[in-house]
Amino acid sequence: MRKKIALLLTFVFIVSGLTACGGGGSDESKDASAKTEDGSTSSGGTVTLAIWESIQEPGLREICDDFTAETGIKVDIQVTPWEQYWTMLEAGATGGALPDVFWMHTKEAERYMSSDLLLNLDEQIEASDKIDLSNYYQDIVNMYNHEESQYAVPKDIDTIALWYNKTYFDEAGLDYPDDTWTWADLKEAAEKLTTDDHYGFVTRIANNQENWYNLVYALGGNIISDDLTTSGYDNPNTIEAIQYFADFAIDGTSPDQTATSENTAAALFESGTAAMSLQGSWMLGSLIDNEYIQENAAVAIIPMTDDGTRVSIYNGLGYAAAANTEYPAEAWALIEYLGSEEAQLKQAELGVTLSAFKGTSDKWADSVEGFDLSPYLAVMDDTLEFYPHSKNTTVWEDMANEKLVKVWTGEFTAEEVCKEIAEEMNASLAEE
Amino acid sequence: MAKPKVMKGTNQKKSEFIWGWFFILPTMLGLFVLNIIPIFQTLYQSFFKTGDFGKGNIFVGLDNYTKMFQDSDVWQALLNTGKYAIIEVPFSIAIGLIAAVLLNRKMRGRTVFRTIFFLPMVAAPAGVAMVWRWLYNTEFGLINQLLGKIGIEPVKWISNPNIAFASIAVVGIWSVIGYNMILFLAGLQEIPRDYYEAAEIDGASSVKQFFNITIPLLSPTLFFVCVTRIIAALQVFDLIFMMMDKTNEALPKTQTLSYLFYKYSFIQNNKGYGSAIVMLLLVVIMIITVIQMRVEKHVNY
Fold this sequence. Notes:
The structure holds two protein chains of two kinds.
Chain A: H1 2-23, H2 31-34, E1 46-51, H3 57-71, E2 74-79, H4 82-95, E3 101-104, H5 106-114, H6 122-127, H7 138-143, E4 145-146, E5 149-150, E6 152-154, E7 156-157, E8 160-165, H8 166-172, H9 183-193, H10 212-218, H11 236-251, H12 257-262, H13 265-270, E9 276-280, H14 284-288, H15 291-296, E10 297-301, E11 311-314, E12 318-321, H16 328-339, H17 341-349, E13 354-355, H18 362-365, H19 374-378, E14 383-386, H20 393-408, H21 414-430
Parallel strand pairs in A: 1-2, 1-3, 11-14
Antiparallel strand pairs in A: 3-12, 4-5, 6-12, 7-13, 8-9, 8-10
Helix pairs in contact in A: 10-11, 20-21
Chain B: H1 9-45, E1 48-49, E2 58-59, H2 63-70, H3 72-102, H4 110-122, H5 125-136, H6 142-149, H7 164-188, H8 193-201, H9 206-233, H10 238-243, H11 257-267, H12 271-299
Antiparallel strand pairs in B: 1-2
Helix pairs in contact in B: 2-12, 3-7, 3-9, 4-7, 7-9, 9-12, 11-12
């Protein structure tokens, strides 16, 4: 009798266990969805949209609600933090279960496109009257184009600007940065702004896009050749730019390598530890949330070189769909809507990001009361340099950042280390 | 509800046999699918230059292994793994043992103390890492703030290449003391009280009793804890990954083989090389465990 009860209980547990595992997703290989709460993908009119920036979610939620009102298709936004986003996506891709629509980034786009994981959007774009690729910044469009086919619709664009602490400038009796500032002016000001209480500037290796990439290109150097096959790290201009940024940490006008590896640049700026910081437009949401920033900070255009060359690195995300999505029509409808002028305007208005659709970003500059964000737009009239990338960007980018640690601590000069970086980067580019 | 007292030997044996297998089937299945098969898959992958998303794997034979043997990062990581284990294991066992002995007596609040010691085990490792990361932060961390109040300069707990591995080991020890303590408590409760009573009558101090009765009779448990703790310590990854940024100066002197495995397999998508590294770790752990089992025969009471 007891055995029978035990047997019955065991069966009950096994069965309920299997249903719990199996019922979590419409098929077994949904390990990608395991990272997100409900683990379900589309079911009769719901499309999943995977993103990594939780700050942008509220704005996107509004835009998606408009989409739902118009078409009746529901959108399930799933946020996975940047550090885990690509691991999640890769697990889904290898297992055959990607989200329906998801953000694609310059660093990874090539890999996904060449592995046939993204839905080919050529036909849909042809047929659509809302999406015309000439409306977007060409570098971004080209990024998501592979072998003459388009695989993602541009979502946004980001540029770099200089954030500064007005209070510290006032205390030091300095004029605020303006569009006449050169990189030499920045250095001078940083020295004057470094006191016992705070530093003048934050230089951080991992913030390559915001920091030294800009100066590298402004001085005429490069990170990678235009055909994406050779490293630019052994270019003397590149080396000069890197040394410029490392010197802040070495001579004490910026928190040292330890502080910047343990803390983010935004944290150091927000806590008043540093008086100036170069920040990308995508950081607006998280910076502006902070009361100290609201009261004490302002934005200026990125400095130029002595001969007037002003460069900002720019990048743009894209909306892509999974090649094997169960709902290609709905996925395209969402992508079309999100890329349309209407949604791009709203995206800028809500302060989500600068939009990739040319001419829609002006509202973004006014999206925060009392804050003038026009420097991010003004720099678009100067030189924009697209984010340096290749098929396996992460491999050499991480390698370079790790090697540069010794430059930031002053143990080696940029010249010595950059030659090594160039060698290794060329080796890994050759393997691509 | 009368159960027949005598069953035919073979029937009973058969029935027990079937029931036995039936009950361990779920665990066996999980073990097989999630542990055994991946081991062979990893070994298989280590002979390939893996392509993106599981497609386009190219057979390269022993290339990954030759590359690995020439990679100074790997050997430094092996050393780091050893350094970490040497600090974590002895201390966590010693402290766990002392805690167990002290909490084995009849005392007030015994259950409360046992719970407190065990709580770190219940906290998610990622959460633990995040909190300790902020405690250790050089500029803003609580520990340096407190040291500052008594006039000591800030210490670079996780950025100084010489002490970072010890700082991480401290967190490892802290999280595992509770687990060791519980195992030791179980072992302690097996020791008959008579031995202690006899020793007291003979006039032995508690310390003498500890070394001459407790430790020898606890040696099976001690051995088990030692072996399992070493195996776990050699695989440490999550603490280092969560507490140290990729640009941390101390990382080369702290990263372990598991960390390198994750870096190559999941961040750089080079699963072939990562698999080779993990095979090295497997061999190292196996050798150490075999040595321990040989030693056990001589040491076990």
